[in-house]
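Table 4 source record.
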Amino acid sequence: MNNSPNRRAFLRGVGACLFLPTLESMGAPAPSLKGGTVGSATRLAYLYFPNGAAAGSWAPSSVSRDGRLERLNNWMSPLEPHKGDLVVTRNLWTPRGNGHGAGTATWLTGGAFDGRRNDVGSASVDQMVARRLPASPLPSLEISTNGEGSFSGSLSRNCLSWTSRDTPAVRETVPRAIFDKLFRRSKEGFVDKSVLDLVLSQSKDLKRRASGADQRKIDEYFDAVRAVEKRLAFAEEQSLRMSEDQALTDTLRRPKPGIPSSHEEYVRQLLDLMALAFWSGATRVSTFMLDHGQSNRYFNFLPGVKGTWHALSH
């Protein structure tokens, strides 16, 4: 009888399936002396924003002769702790995919764009990588904000990931739907409880068998899952209150069900969910569109800014 634990570990409960991060107790490789783990999982993420960037925003203040980033500029300063891992490229251009629609659709394919057939030349690179990496519960996860304004229904402006040259991958735009895709078992029906409560008995048993280091990792991971659940619930309550306030609904565009009324909170939730998807091992490949390729989103959620993203970019 084989008693060796399964490295692709998960906890199951009625209506829930919670994938776990890599654990030493489950046969995962131990940390190496240089940091990280021996044979640690490869993960790939593409984050896309449209309409270009301000000149110089991705130009480090100081670069060594061998190409190392020595000092970042003010715009890049949040990345300062990670500058040793950064590579900044320049002069990349795909002339066969010029323009808002073609440029967006072919960003990850590098192919020519045929708008009549929605043909982008090949499958996108994220899908090619997903097919070659070890299997995971979700081969890839495609995330996007919900489009706003003109061209929000344009296929070419809303698709980065393509499973074939003319077949776009399905995007997820609602935080709750992404969370359920990662952690809920839809075949057993929806249970309106915390996913952690649904796997409580199994999680207690797991922690009893886990090493001290793994127990801390499990606690950190569960805390992150619970925090996302709480933020999703709070944002949904706020959106519901806004929709029921006649004064607000007369002056503000009502958000669609399940999408936070605060755009900043909406984007933060989606980024947190991408991180959870990687952390849990639910997927190794993900794409995230901060908006469609010709975004006309109003940027009045930023202090002192008036106007739409596309217009402001000109």
